Sequence to fold (278 residues):
Amino acid sequence: MSLLMPRLDWILGCCTAGGCESHGQTEFQVQLSSEPAPAHGAKHLLTSGDSFDITFTPRLFGTQGLSRASNAPFTPRQRDLRAQLELPSLQTYPVPPNLGPETAEEVRKERLLEMYREFALDLHTGMYLTQLTSNRDYADIHVQLMEDLTTLKLDQSNGRIIEFPLTNVSKVYRIVKNDDKWYAAGTPLPHSSANTEQIVVVEFMRRKLAFVFKELQVSQRFLICMELLIRRAQQKQALRSLTPTFPPQHAQSRQCPTPRLVHDAMTRPIPSPPDNLK
Fold:
């Protein structure tokens, strides 16, 4: 141990603040922290990404959302889901954002289908959105499309998880909030404001869900794709209601002839004619 002390004194002497003081004792305190340095703009815990959370999907379904974030490859399950997603039957199809009415119809439908599939996959993974509650408060919630692609699951981070069947949606529309005043979509605003909010409302039988967006094109994409999901769910339900679960009763009464029935019919004696016909 005595042989190590001079070497230790020499190391500590080289690390002193003066740099040349080989004698004299200095006390060092090193503080290590695993926390990242504070950023200039603090983020809410719910809206900041977690590198270990595979279910977190940032809100990248805006103007740049026409291509999947970071061009991530599809998993086998995602490929299966994409194969299930086709455009529902509509008389007229909406025009995707960033495309004009002069664009060819085939191109518009192709872009619409791609945008619709990417939105559905992002929603199936789960995304964090801002909800406007009934008492005019803002809440960050986690929204996820379930495996049947017809049910929304909302996690309000308060221990409650609520499921909303898309077949029960009665209406979906967009409104604009500007300086605490409400306007219908497309209404000219008196002046542009940084507080302008695009709100997409999904109405159910007894409840409304209002999602808040800052960008117009983001809200338009959400509205279009959500309406396509709703139409798909309702058309699938209508198709199931038209398909009978059990065959009609008269079809059940008709039995398929078995070999025994055929044999009995052939061996049955033929009745003799009446006497007056002999």
User: Anything to note?
Assistant: The domain at 63-240 is CATH 2.30.29.30 (PH-domain like).
